[in-house]
Write a structure and sequence with these properties.
Layout lengths: L13 E4 L5 H9 L4 E4 L15 H14 L13 H32 L5 H5 L13 H31 L17 H11 L8 H5 L1
Parallel strand pairs: 1-2
Helix pairs in contact: 3-5, 3-6
Length: 209
Amino acid sequence: MNPVKPYRKGLAGIAVESTFNWYWLVDGLMDNGYSVHFANPSAIKQYEGLKHSDDEREAFHLAHLLKLGIVPEGSIYPKEEGPVRNLLRKRLQRVRHRTSHSLSFKDLVSRNLGIQMSSNEIKGLKEEDVEVIRNEEHLVLAGRANIATMRFLKERITEIEKAVLKKAKLRKEYLKLLTVAGIGKILALTIMRETGDIARFPEVGNYVS
């Protein structure tokens, strides 16, 4: 059932507020030919004399702004590019988790053994290598938990990277990213997918912010 259909002829457009779950609604409306305006809630100033606020009043406020042509709009990310972008975000989440376990293990060894280990050294460890912490079995267990989790996350990260590289290619205008130290194909693809259409940023400062 399409609740908007009876009003379609009188619709100049539909304003949808940017929330965490906007994807399905915006995609569905656009697939059915509706003109969608993606409202940026952080840029919308409510009427200062407003005594009450609820979904109905906010909807009327959005409609009023749309009618006046002054809705602050955000960018609607292309539906077909969303899955790969979300997969790259999932990879980034896994990388952060792995880093947190690496730092945790580094602190564990430093506090209890007075040994400084580099991140690369820790990445190469296996669970049995943690037996070096021989003075306390519970510390061994904690260290092994860090290493086991890191190795598991590494497998998942590698799996995601293979899937992304199989599906996505770096567009010509983003190839120069590969000339920057520390940026490889995966990070370049992440930047490209997060940027989308760079023309939506009027100035360099808008992009940086």
